[in-house]
Design brief:
about 80 residues, mainly alpha, two-stranded parallel sheet, 5 helices, about 40% helix, about 5% strand
C-alpha cells in the first residue's frame, strides 16, 4: 500500500479499494490471491458461504443466502436505510 501511494497518482474520484487493487498503476508489482481464494475474504458481488466480511450485501441478489447464515444482517440493512 505504501509503495502504491509513493509511486502512483490516485485518479480523481477513484474509490480507495480500486486504487489499492493496483488497477491504475503498473509501476508496482502486486501479488494477488486467486479468484477462488479472494472470494473467502469478503462478499460483495460474488457470493461465498462463509466469508470473513461483506460490503453492503443488501445491494446484491445473494442477500437472502447471507441472511440465512447471518440473521443480524437484517439489523444492519435497516440501519443503513435510515
Amino acid at each position: 500500500m505504501l509503495e502504491l501511494l509513493d509511486k502512483c497518482d490516485i485518479p480523481t474520484g477513484t474509490p480507495e479499494d480500486v486504487f489499492f487493487g493496483g488497477l491504475f498503476c503498473d509501476k508496482v508489482s502486486l501479488h494477488k490471491p486467486s479468484y477462488e481464494k479472494s472470494k473467502e475474504f469478503s462478499v460483495e458481488q460474488v457470493y461465498y458461504k462463509n466469508p470473513i466480511g461483506t460490503h453492503k450485501p443488501w445491494n446484491f441478489t445473494h442477500n437472502d443466502l447471507l441472511k440465512n447464515t447471518y440473521p443480524d444482517l437484517e439489523i444492519l440493512e435497516s440501519l443503513n436505510k435510515t
